[in-house]
Amino acid sequence: MTKTCRECGEDTDEPIAVALEHVASTGGRVVYLCQLCRFVLGIVPLDQHPAGSDGRVRYEEEMPA
After folding, report:
1. Which of 8, 14, 51, 57 could link 19 by a cystine bridge, Cβ 3.0 to 4.6 Å?
2. CB–CB of 64/49 below 8 Å?
3. 13 to each of 1, 6, 9, 33, 43, how far by Cα in Å?
4. Could you give the angle at the alpha carbon of 37 between the alpha carbons of 22 and 50, nearest 5°?
5. Nearest of 36, 27, 48, 26 to residue 6 by alpha carbon
């Protein structure tokens, strides 16, 4: 499944869901990043959010070295 990275705009065959984008008038959608952008920005993948998460972007507690 190819998706476009929200950060760099490049298509990726390995998209990572990182957040739910809430849109008042039309439900919402999933935000995807490529692996490099997710790593560089230190964003937690959506499937690793804690139970009860509202889907907002979450950052790693410690930035990768």
Report:
1. 57
2. no
3. 6, 14, 13, 11, 19
4. 50
5. 36
pLDDT by residue (tens digit) across 11-43?
999 999 999 988 777 778 899 999 999 999 999
Prediction pTM value? 0.83
Question: Residue 36, SS3?
Answer: helix
Strands 16-22 and 28-33: antiparallel
- Return the pLDDT at 28: 82
Q: Which element (helix H / strand E) includes 20?
A: strand 16-22
CA distances from 20 to 9, 23, 58 (A): 18, 10, 11
What distance in Å separates the CA atoms of residue 47 and residue 64, rounded to the nearest whole number? 19
